[in-house]
């Protein structure tokens, strides 16, 4: 089953269909399902909950919250009183009596660390049996965390196989990740940080967008696989933040430093620390600060006997990214490789711990001819101190540094002459134009997403896209 969606790129709806009351069933009345039911009823939608657990069904049918969650009991009580909420153990009835079905079943960790799909498969089969007897269009919305590909390859495949109906003309599918924090879930639902809709076609996307119109008029529309992945990325990032803060606490305590005050100051920087800066896949970090400071912090921890496995893994992970770039080039069996960008980042002539030097060195040691272009790197006396610094801090690069004046060329065209592979490590307009102008024989290894839209040519390969 293909995982290609109607929306290959991220979009934002600027004209959301006008709000209208929907008839919505929710399969799975656990944490997400119960909160979704109550909040959607509060928006005026008629809700039918379905679960195999009669205790959950009875609780919600009486307007009682099955979990401890602020304001949830009040919303359920109001929804039942207004006849907007009912609950049943008959999933087929729930699906047949509604136009949209939200799937919020559990996806526990399976043996080996993967995702246990038994409840997803069970829900898909129950929906399929219901849709076999329904002849109007029905929208299925996945709300549970699943590996990318699950919605199309498991949910859709099971529904089609059992119902005999087809995705598109007969039913639609969306993946709509939830971003609800326990304890503030109702407020998070009504004031979402973002509303993400992964859809297989425009009809499905518009239908789901209209349900959320009163709380988010500009949902993010993307592919189903993107939406599935976003949910995982969000939670792994939150786990990373918790781990990072805890490691800072472990480091500060034996030093007599107030870790909370340190992190309060850290969080005031919303230009770099709490922003999208640095949070795009690309090449390895380098320069005069980041590698040195990471090593320094790890050294302090080692001296104190403090275990910081998260921070300690940063240099190793960075090295993996460098090795990946080397491997990507080598697999193309080049005779000559050209590098567009040599300093550790654009608009600087700083070569200190520039990760691309490691790539250049490895390929040169393999007997591959290399050339490079960087408008900020000259062969004059201005860089003499930097050359000496690199020789001192990375003696294995001395041969490369000695050869650098001959490797560096005066223009992108001179550098790329007769090159089999061009490695792009600076995403500037100059490098973008130079890359676009390359002869057809040259293969491109892009380490920085030099083009906004990824080329489909077989000549092109991105390091993380």
Largest sheet: 9 strands, mixed
How many structural domains does the protein architecture include? 2
Residues in helices, as a percent range: 40-55%
* Side-by-side strand order of the widest sheet: 1-9-8-7-6-5-2-3-4
What general form does the structure show?
elongated
Secondary-structure-based class equals: alpha/beta
**Can you name the CATH architecture of the largest domain?**
3-Layer(aba) Sandwich
Classified in CATH, the superfamily of the largest domain is NAD(P)-binding Rossmann-like Domain
Any idea what the radius of gyration is? Answer: 27 Å
**Can you count the helices?**
18
Quickly list its features:
single chain, 465 residues, alpha/beta, Rossmann fold, 2 domains, nine-stranded mixed β-sheet, five-stranded parallel β-sheet, 18 helices, 43% helix
Structure, explained:
By secondary structure, this protein is an alpha/beta fold. The chain has two domains: 11-234, Rossmann fold (3-Layer(aba) Sandwich); 317-462, NAD(P)-binding Rossmann-like Domain (Rossmann fold, 3-Layer(aba) Sandwich). It is built from 18 helices and 14 strands. Strand 8, helix 8 and strand 9 (220-222) form a beta-alpha-beta unit. Helix 5 packs parallel to helix 6 (150-163) and helix 13 (314-330) packs across helix 14. The chain is elongated and about 80 Å long.
């Amino acid at each position: 089953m293909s995982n290609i969606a109607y929306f290959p790129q991220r979009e934002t709806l600027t004209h959301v269909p006008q709000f209208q009351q929907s008839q919505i069933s929710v399969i799975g009345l656990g944490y997400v399902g119960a909160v979704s039911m109550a909040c959607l009823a509060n928006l005026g939608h008629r809700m039918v909950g379905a679960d195999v657990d009669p205790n959950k069904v009875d609780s919600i049918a009486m307007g009682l919250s099955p979990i401890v969650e602020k304001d949830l009991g009040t919303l359920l009580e109001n929804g039942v009183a207004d006849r907007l909420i009912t609950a049943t153990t008959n999933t087929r009835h729930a699906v047949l009596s509604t136009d949209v079905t939200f799937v919020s079943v559990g996806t526990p960790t399976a043996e080996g660390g993967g995702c246990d799909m038994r409840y997803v498969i069970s829900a898909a089969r129950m929906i399929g049996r219901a849709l076999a007897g329904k002849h109007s269009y029905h929208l299925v919305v996945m709300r549970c965390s699943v590996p990318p590909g699950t919605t199309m390859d498991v949910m859709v495949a099971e529904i089609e196989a059992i119902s005999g109906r087809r995705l598109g003309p007969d039913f639609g599918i969306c993946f709509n990740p939830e971003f609800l924090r326990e304890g503030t879930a109702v407020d998070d639902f009504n004031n979402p940080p973002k509303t993400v809709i992964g859809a297989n076609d425009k009809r499905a996307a518009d239908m789901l967008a209209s349900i959320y119109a009163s709380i988010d008029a500009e949902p993010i529309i993307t592919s189903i696989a993107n939406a599935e992945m976003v949910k995982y990325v969000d939670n792994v990032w939150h786990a990373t933040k918790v781990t990072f803060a805890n490691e800072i606490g472990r480091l500060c305590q034996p030093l007599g430093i107030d870790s909370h005050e340190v992190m309060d100051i850290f969080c005031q920087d919303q230009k770099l620390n709490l922003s999208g800066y640095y949070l795009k896949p690309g090449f390895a970090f380098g320069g005069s600060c980041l590698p040195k400071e990471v090593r320094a912090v790890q050294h302090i921890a080692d001296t104190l006997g403090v275990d910081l496995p998260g921070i300690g893994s940063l240099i190793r992970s960075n090295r993996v990214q460098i090795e990946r770039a080397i491997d990507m080039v080598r697999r193309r069996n080049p005779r000559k490789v050209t590098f567009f960008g040599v300093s550790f980042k654009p608009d600087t002539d700083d070569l200190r711990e520039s990760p691309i030097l490691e790539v250049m060195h490895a390929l040169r040691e393999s007997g591959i001819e290399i050339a490079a272009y960087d408008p900020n790197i000259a062969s004059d006396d201005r860089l003499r101190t930097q050359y000496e610094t690199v020789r001192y801090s990375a003696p294995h690069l001395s041969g490369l540094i000695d050869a650098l004046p001959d490797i560096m060329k005066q223009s992108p065209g001179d550098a790329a002459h007769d090159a089999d592979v061009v490695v792009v490590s600076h995403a500037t307009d100059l490098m973008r134009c130079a890359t676009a102008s390359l002869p057809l024989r040259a293969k491109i290894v892009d380490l920085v997403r030099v083009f906004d839209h990824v080329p489909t040519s077989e000549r092109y390969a991105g390091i993380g896209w």
